[in-house]
Amino acid sequence: MEAKVKIKEEGIVIPKKLFKEMVGTYIKMEQILATLETLADKETLTAIEESKKQVAKGIYVECSINDLEKVLK
């Protein structure tokens, strides 16, 4: 695909299709980085493991998104 990017005095003109691809790639990279940060954080991984154990034992609270603030208090 030949992208026709134009450089003007006011800025750069990028075709919509190319821009959408760029944003999609950026979002994927952000997701990958967030996953790597989580995997690198020992405290977070420990909390996740503890949560898994609690759920397996039936120790959890169900609520709707509207009741979330009430439940977290």
Write the layout of secondary structure elements.
Layout: E1 6-8, E2 11-13, H1 16-40, H2 42-56, H3 68-72
Antiparallel strand pairs: 1-2
**Shape assignment:** elongated
Unreliable sequence segments: none
> Could you spell the SSE succession in H and E letters?
EEHHH
Largest sheet at a glance? 2 strands, antiparallel
How many runs of DSSP E, i.e. beta strands?
A: 2
How much of the polypeptide forms β-strand, as a percent range?
A: 5-15%
Distance between the termini: 53 Å
Mean of residue pLDDT? 93
Compute the number of helices.
3
Helix fraction bin:
55-70%
Round the Cα radius of gyration to an integer and report it: 22 Å
Structural class: mainly alpha
- Widest sheet: strand ordering: 1-2
Outline:
Helix content is 62%, strand content 8%. The chain has helices spanning 16-40, 42-56, 68-72, and strands at 6-8, 11-13.
Q: Any overview of this molecule?
A:
With 73 residues, this protein is mainly alpha-helical. 62% of the residues lie in helices and 8% in strands. It has helices at residues 16-40, 42-56, 68-72; strands at 6-8, 11-13. Strands 1-2 form a two-stranded antiparallel sheet. A hairpin with a 2-residue loop joins strand 1 and strand 2 (11-13). The radius of gyration is 22 Å and the shape is elongated. The relative contact order is 0.06. The model has no long low-confidence stretch (mean pLDDT 93).
Write out key terms for the chains shown:
about 60% helix; about 10% strand; mainly alpha; elongated; about 70 residues; two-stranded antiparallel sheet; single chain; 3 helices
